[in-house]
Amino acid sequence: MRLGSAGAKLALVAALASGLGGCLGYNGEVVHGYQLDSKAVDQVKPGASAEQILVLLGTPTTTSTVGGDAWYYITQKTDRGFQFMKPTVVDQRVFAVYFTKAKKVDRIANYGMQDGKLFDFVSRTTPTAGAESTFLKGMFLNLLKFS
Fold first, then answer.
1. What does the angle CA 69 – CA 62 – CA 67 come to, to the nearest 5 degrees?
2. pLDDT of residue 99
3. What is the mean pLDDT of each run of 10 residues along the chain (147 residues)?
4. d(Cα 108, Cα 114) in Å, to the nearest integer?
5. What is the DSSP code (8-state) at residue 82?
């Protein structure tokens, strides 16, 4: 009878181990976007053509539409302590290739989080300058006007 009890305990331990096995190996870090290859980046030189950049780096994440021609390759690394927690941005990189009018590389830049504010690529909203006006504030201001 003791052998059956030991076998049941062993089966319970095996079931728990297999259930928790999916949690092992997950450290919470996820890389989104373009996977920047340092060897390919080192080959990007001023004077190279746009076709050469496409071969080296592939299609850019986004391109500029105002004030010149630039291609942006965007990488974002997020970390989440537990699966149910909201992810936080740990690192963000934007590798930019700026072109001349003749579609030759003018210069390159590698921006990180320390170069500016973190911004949301998905929401597509631009914060406005000044204080936010609320409904209640507007209502009280209108009630106080005696004209």
1. 30
2. 92
3. 66 69 64 86 91 92 81 88 78 88 90 63 51 70 71
4. 17
5. S
In sequence order, which ranges of 1-147 are alpha helices (DSSP H)?
2-20, 38-42, 50-57, 135-143
Instruction: Give me the pLDDT at residue 78, please.
Output: 87
Burial class of residue 99 (count of CB atoms within 10 Å of its CB; 0-12, 13-18, 19+): buried
User: What distance in Å separates the CA atoms of residue 108 and residue 64, rounded to the nearest whole number?
Assistant: 14
Q: For residue 57, what are the CA distances in angstroms to 2, 28, 39, 43, 75?
A: 65, 27, 10, 10, 13
Tell me the C-alpha distance between 74 and 93, whole Å: 6
The residue written with tokens 């996820």 in the block is 30
pLDDT score recorded for residue 136: 73
